[in-house]
Specification:
4 domains, 19 helices, Rossmann fold, 5-stranded parallel beta sheet
């Protein structure tokens, strides 16, 4: 697949040689002597690769800003100046690529060829969003458009088990940063007191045990994508620091003095209702609006119609092959039960159930006769409220709900928050508002278990 390429080079002889070389390789090329002429003449064109000489061109910064705002992502590569100015150029523009003037023709053709090859490979290897429903057709189209646009921040929402991690990987694989790293961070799995150092890194002496420099996950993702899964679990203080990093695109390691320019795409995901969390004080409104520039809402499995059976057959056959069995599908009754089930755990629950069915099936079985699905639990835990003696203040009702959730969860804050349909941040905010110590409010037997 040929590329659309922009070339800005003031030296006419060199510009013409590179132009001819790229066109011989089959690419479409716009060539200009300066950035101002390029900005005036490109119109609606959207190049995929820009080769730019910036030395002494006052209009270059405006051209680069325009290229980075294009709907179709453009990889900006600088033609390194002669005379040892490469370091200054790198500090100024933080480029993802440099080519030298001495070998510009060969390097330009080689670079374009590598981008072509990578684009073709990405189309073959991008993680699939499985399903043939109209809902999934829309999601795939949206993800591909977001990836090609290179949006700096993306928010993926949806219930647990709907495929948010797969969606994030697809955005990275199909985007202009696919050649860079994809760094995944589970915000719910890292203790709050360690999260800042994990993301930003630290210098020696930053705290008691900091004896050497540690590169943070944001820095490891330079030139690529960082995926913050369950971002609703971040503590409010760290939310403020993350917001500053996103606004300035700069950060310092803990204990460090030098600012590091950040060049990453940030994809965040949550199964929480962040707008409700903002209203309840558990998530910063300014960070939410900073993340919510482009949003992908993944549908629940129960909203995807025949995709349930399609996925069930695929998961069942995959599990059966690993076990040396030959299961090929479901009886009519089993298929009907699968489509009726609400699948609260979504794709993750469906996959796990198919693996269990494959494991339990007789060696000679050719199809599943009974899927043995349990009805979802409802009303398993209740909070009793006595209104017979008149109205109760809402604070007392909320206090009772918090206490019961902590009791049932054995003092586990994340689990208690899940039982009430809250994020951990919103749950902790409510605890602090009631002056509650998470364990002090529990009966003695639960404290010992916690």
């Amino acid at each position: 697949m040929a590329l659309d390429i922009l070339l800005v080079e003031p030296e006419s002889e060199l510009r013409d040689r590179v132009l001819r070389a790229l066109r011989r390789a089959g690419h479409s090329v716009w060539a200009f002597a300066g950035a101002a002429a390029a900005s005036d003449s490109l119109g609606d064109a959207e190049p995929e690769l820009a080769l730019l000489t910036s030395a002494g061109d006052p209009a270059m910064d405006d051209l680069v800003d325009g290229l980075r705002d294009l709907e179709r992502a453009c990889q900006v590569v600088w033609i390194a100046p002669e005379g040892g100015e490469t370091e200054a150029l790198t500090r100024r523009h933080h480029p993802r690529g440099l080519v030298t003037r001495a070998e510009l023709e060969d390097q330009a053709v080689g670079l374009a060829g590598r981008i072509e090859k990578r684009a073709a490979q990405v189309l073959r290897t991008a993680p699939p969003m499985m399903g043939k429903s109209a809902a999934m057709d829309k999601i795939r189209t949206l993800l591909d458009r977001i990836a090609q646009g290179g949006a700096p921040t993306v928010l993926i929402t949806g219930e647990s088990g709907t495929g948010k991690e797969v969606a994030a990987r697809r955005i990275h694989a199909l985007g202009p940063r696919s050649g860079g790293p994809l760094v995944e961070v589970d915000c719910a799995a890292i203790p709050a007191e360690l999260m800042e150092g994990t993301l930003l890194g630290h210098e020696p002496g930053a705290f008691t045990d900091a004896r050497e420099t540690r590169i943070g996950l944001l820095e490891l993702a330079q030139g690529g994508t960082v995926f913050l899964d369950e971002i609703g679990e971040l503590e409010l203080g760290l939310q403020a620091k993350l917001l500053r990093v996103l606004d300035t695109r700069r950060f310092r390691r803990l204990g460090g003095q030098d600012e590091i320019q950040l060049d990453v795409q940030l994809v965040a995901a949550t199964n929480r209702d962040l707008q409700r969390e903002v209203r309840d004080g558990g998530f910063r409104a300014d960070l939410f609006y900073r993340l919510d520039v482009v949003r992908v809402q993944l549908p629940a499995l129960r909203e995807r119609g025949d995709d349930v059976l399609l996925l069930a057959r695929r998961f069942l056959e995959e599990a059966a092959r690993r076990l040396g069995k030959d299961l090929r599908g479901f009886s009519p009754d089993a298929a009907e039960a699968l489509t009726r089930h609400p699948w609260p755990g979504n794709i993750r629950e469906l996959r796990n159930h198919m693996e269990r069915l494959a494991l339990m099936a007789e060696p000679e079985a050719r199809r599943v006769e009974n899927v043995d699905l349990e009805a979802p639990e409802t009303g398993a835990h209740r909070v009793s409220i006595d209104l017979s003696r008149g109205p109760l203040p809402w604070e007392e009702i909320e206090h009772a709900a918090l206490t019961e959730a902590l009791r049932v969860a054995g003092g586990n804050v994340s689990e208690a928050a899940r039982l009430l349909g809250l994020g951990r941040g919103a749950f902790r905010y409510r605890l602090s508002r009631h002056g509650m110590d998470t364990l002090a409010e529990l009966p003695q037997d639960s404290k010992e278990a916690a």
